[in-house]
Amino acid sequence: MKKHILNLAICASLGLYGVNVSALVDHTSGNGDAVVYGGNLKSSTELKTISSLTGDLSVKFKLDKDIDVGIQRFVRIELSGGTAGSNGTKFNTSAISLNLSITDNAATPVNRNADIAIVQGGAGYNYVIFRVVPKTSSPTPPAVETGALKTTDLVTFTGDDVDIGGTNDILFSYGLFETVTEAANPDAASSTVLASLDNMPYIHFTAPYSLEKDDGLKDLIADVATGFTEFKGTTIPKTGELSSFTLAKTANLKTPAGGSVTSLGQLLTDSTLTFKGNFSFALSQDMTTEAEVTKAKQRIFIADGTGGTSGANNNCDNAFGENSATDIPVEIIAEDASSVTFNLYASNSASGVLEVTDTLSSRKLCITANTGADATNIVGEISEQSVTLDLVTTVPGDYTAFDIENVAAGKIKHNGAQLITPFFTMSTQYIPRFYLNNRGLTEATYEIKVLSDFPEGDANALVLQAGSETGTIPAGGNLLLKSTDFIASGKRGAAIFNVAGECADISGIFQVRTSRTSGDFDTIPMLMPSGSCSDD
Fold first, then answer.
1. Is omega for the bond preceding 141 within 30 degrees of 0, making it cis?
2. Residue 51: how many other CB atoms lie within 10 Å
3. Beta strands in 378-460 (DSSP E)
4. What keywords is this UniProt entry annotated with (predicted)?
5. Which of 55-80 are b and which e, b meaning 16 or more Cβ less than 10 Å from the residue's Cβ?
6. All residues at 6 or more sequence positions from 384 whose CB lies less than 8 Å from its CB, including other chains
């Protein structure tokens, strides 16, 4: 089954057409609003019929030309765009309603008295031609205007069943001709059109639903003062709102049978919502036991959304289950922690799950860090990252899958500055030096972490000296540290300085001797990871 991927072209097309919320397409005052269907209606090589139960596929327009009593004229209605070929756009062969009616343009319209009949085209074609002859005699009942048809009279075409061979937009055209030959050959040089509407909106196909990050979502900030083990500005330090998202059906969609789409449940069955990023800081060091896996899943959850977007439980102010017993834990965690997946059920009686019939408006993805001294996570700190969101769908029988990918869903940033040194070797012959500069007006505290060439516990792994892990850089000044000031043992590795200062005020230089005899040194600026000083 072919899948449609939401892209910018489809999103852009939404602006080209209005949304038809009335019972017909009204072109009496210019471009009316098209009837809107999901762009994932099943069609392709299958012949799909869209129908109207309430006259949605009817079109009203001005006659735009007088027709005297007894004079016959020919109205051509044509559908264009869409899909060509034998399985393309046409009036359905079993159509029971291809009609034309004419009224005056009064506030309470009165029918005009005219003989109207199909003379060519119709069911099985993409056009139909009507013969129209105004009458003088008044039928019973007499609530009908007789005499010549007027330019200002209004014409209503009813075409309740249309076959589509694809989901290209379908346009509507009207032409008025003197003869049936001209109406049958409208583009011929000998044909004269007396009045016309060309390529007007009729049927529009668009994305059936949307998935978006909510406006106003703030980035989560991992706080340098805690060694990036806690969030800053959240109600509780370990838990924060990583994303706020809305999954919503497109307004005023019609079903192929002619009804209205009133809920997501008419467009989706069992589907999945997958967030992609680095979720390792929420996991446990040992993910082989059921108990630890359960704990990890409960650290990544969607808040209970009962009560709507402003509901008391629709927030990340507390850890899982502390706001509501029906907070929704993640169901699938990728082995490498690069994604987490929530199932979106068509129907599920269990509590604490997502259903397509739920109100998925401004739902909150909450995350609790398993970091710090009391944690069981080997990662150690909350990672900077941008998180994206995918919707992978299964759909009812009238539709093909319509997935939405790579929606920007949220960010985690580090505050302060992080300086990373080149790798260095511990040696009594030449001792690496680290110059930390603070151009700010207040002193800046720092914390040191080490990366080693050797695994933790190896005799050659770098080990920090007890009590040397933190320090202070003076305001408007510099601090010189030698590797022997903070390394207790080990052979080779790098140092990371997490500095609680403004990024623009903090910098660092690494210096190492390159020759035992000449006294030459290499001086290298310390690396500040991209994004650490960015407001993007």
1. yes
2. 18
3. 385-392, 402-414, 417-420, 424-425, 433-438, 444-452
4. Signal
5. bbbbbbbbbbebbeeeeebbbbbbbb
6. 222, 412, 413, 414, 529, 531, 532
**Are 339 and 278 a contacting pair, CB within 8 Å?**
no
CA dihedral defined by 431, 435, 436, 439, rounded to 10 degrees?
170
SS3 state of residue 77: strand
Distance CA 241, CA 232 (A): 12
Distance CA 259, CA 55 (A): 11
Retrieve residue 515's tokens.
């020759």
Rounded to whole angstroms, the Cα distance separating 166 from 169 reads 9
**Environment class of residue 118 by beta-carbon count within 10 Å: exposed (0-12), middle (13-18) or buried (19+)?**
middle
CA dist 8 → 39, 207, 390 (Å): 14, 11, 15
Helix (H, G, I), strand (E, B) or coil at 9: helix
Structure tokens at 367: 């995350």
- CA distances to 30, 48, 91, 418 from 94, in Å: 31, 13, 9, 71
Dihedral-angle region of residue 221 (phi above 0 means left; psi in -120 to 50 means alpha; beta otherwise): beta
The two tokens of residue 17 are 């057409």
Start-end of H helices in 234-342: 290-298
Q: Supply the pTM of this predicted model.
A: 0.82
Bridge-partner residues for 206, per DSSP? 38
With 0-12 / 13-18 / 19 or more C-beta atoms within 10 angstroms meaning exposed / middle / buried, residue 230 is buried
CA distance linking residue 304 with residue 349, whole number of Å: 15
Phi, psi (5° rounding) for residue 316? Answer: -115, 35
Residue 47 to residue 180: CA distance in whole angstroms: 30
**Cα 86–chain centre separation:** 35
| CB-count exposure of residue 312 (10 Å: 0-12, 13-18, 19+) | exposed
* Cα–Cα distances in angstroms (integers) from residue 113 to residues 71, 104, 118, in the given order: 13, 10, 16
Quick: pLDDT tens for 21-69: 445 899 998 778 899 999 998 765 566 888 876 778 899 999 999 999 9
Residues 6+ positions from 106 with CB-CB distance below 8 Å: none
User: What SS3 state is found at 115?
Assistant: strand
Hey, what domains does the chain have and what are their CATH numbers? 4-206 (no CATH), 209-414 (no CATH), 417-525 (2.60.290)
